[in-house]
Amino acid sequence: MTNELTDDELREAIVRHEWDQFQRTNNEGGRAACQGNWPVFHQMRLAQFLTWERPLLTSYAADLDAADHVGRNLVTEKYGRMMASTAPENFTKNIEPYIPRLSEERAARQEQVIAQQVAWAKDFRERYPKLGEAMRALTTTEDTPSATSFETYLRGELGTYSDQTFERYEAMIGERAAASPQRNITEETLLHTVQLGGFDTLEEAEASQA
């Protein structure tokens, strides 16, 4: 089925699949408002996947399918993993025993990827401060029980990827970091985000911020 889709159709299918899993994610305080906001969810997730090439898209689509087959929900797991920082006692007691444990090697490789992306996000925020203000807090040290940082969110998401998907993601980040000049994936993602929101450029979107 995946082979029959164009790249853009595959991206849309992935966003819809994530949305379906998001709808089955139980929030401790009841259903979250964002679970009813398809337009924003679609914009934010599609913007990310527009930076991905087909092999990574195909691998992640397979992850979502495989999760369905065994009764896993990768979106639920992503938010659960974030709680290692935002609600550590709850995580240790109620979540950690029930999700796949990452090897030390995998966790260390993820941290290298995360460090690169946090550096890119910091650079973006310095150049586009108004757009930066609208983003999540940057680092895990800024987490609160009700607010999750960019770093913690990324750590939660990477932890749900299969080994194959993570290897492809890691390679993508490495290639962008090695490019001259570097290709800042945060900037690319935010450019897609504002373009999906009706702006032509980041400069135009920055100027529109109050």
Automatic annotation (TrEMBL):
<dbReference type="Pfam" id="PF13526">
    <property type="entry name" value="DUF4125"/>
</dbReference>
<protein>
    <recommendedName>
        <fullName>DUF4125 family protein</fullName>
    </recommendedName>
</protein>
<dbReference type="InterPro" id="IPR025191">
    <property type="entry name" value="DUF4125"/>
</dbReference>
